[in-house]
Amino acid sequence: MNVYDNFQDAYLDTLDDILKKDSYQVSPRGFRSLELLGAGFRIDNPLDRLITHPSRRSNLVFNFAEALWYLTGRDDLAYLSYYAPSVRRYSSDGVRLTGTAYGPRISRYGAAGIDQWDAVLMQLRNDPDSKRAVIQIYQAEELQIPDNIDVACTLALQFLLREGRLHAVGYMRANDAYRGMVSDVFSFTFLQEVLARQLGVSVGTYTHMVGSIHVYDPDLPAASDLLATENTEGSSPMPSIPEGDVPGDIMRLMALEHQLRTNARRLAPGDIDSLELPHYWCEVAVLLELHRRVKYSETADAETISELLDWINPRYRQLMTRRFPVLDREASHA
Question: With contact defined as beta carbons under 8 Å apart, do 64 and 49 qualify?
Answer without folding.
Answer: no
